[in-house]
Amino acid sequence: MTTPDIIRLLQLVPHPEGGYYRETYRSSQTIGAAGSETRNVSTAIYYLLEGQDKSHFHRIKSDELWFFHQGQPLEIILLLDGQATIVTLGNDFAAAEVPQATIPANTWFAARVKHGTGYALVSCTVAPGFDFADFELANREGLTVEFPQLAGLVGELTR
Questions:
Q1: Where in the numbering of this chain does the DUF985 domain appear (predicted)?
Q2: So what's the pLDDT on residue 56?
Q3: Got the DSSP string for 111-157?
């Protein structure tokens, strides 16, 4: 099956951070979140990156879990304590790949297909549930000021 087939069959659309997605679940239950905002308890999406596509640095106000389904290994780059930490989603456990990863709330992170070829299909769940009001796409200049020691990586993974 080709990447365009997967995009068509799963009815994926372009995501503002890069790649393709489709929301597959939104809890009918709600919860009060930071401030007085109400959010769905949980949400889930399919998410696909192909080739040189990137999920550019962004952050959200909730914890997010990523689950690997198929394709090539996917690197998730988290900016934690002034340094870049890479978690690789995949099925080769002997190569330190993992089938799921957690991104803590308010953490800058990005993702890319490890070798820049093929595709990676994952799912992401967010709790409290995702809302675009909680989504912040990084500004290259601002993130470079915050992480000057990572200027090259920030330049590669921002627009």
A1: 5-138
A2: 97
A3: EEETTSSSEEEEEEEEESPP-GGG-EEPPHHHHHHH-GGGHHHHHHT
Q: Which residue, chain included where needed, has tokens 């769940």?
A: 125
Residue with token string 């990005």: 110
pLDDT, residue 107, reads 98
Q: Report pLDDT for 32.
A: 84
63-71: strand order across its sheet: 13-14, 20-26, 43-50, 119-127, 63-71, 100-103
- C-alpha 4/C-alpha 16 separation (Å) is 19
Cβ–Cβ < 8 Å for 23, 4: no
The end-to-end CA distance of the chain, in Å, is 30
DSSP summary character for residue 47? E
The parts of the chain modelled with pLDDT lower than 50 are: none
Q: pTM above the 0.85 mark?
A: yes
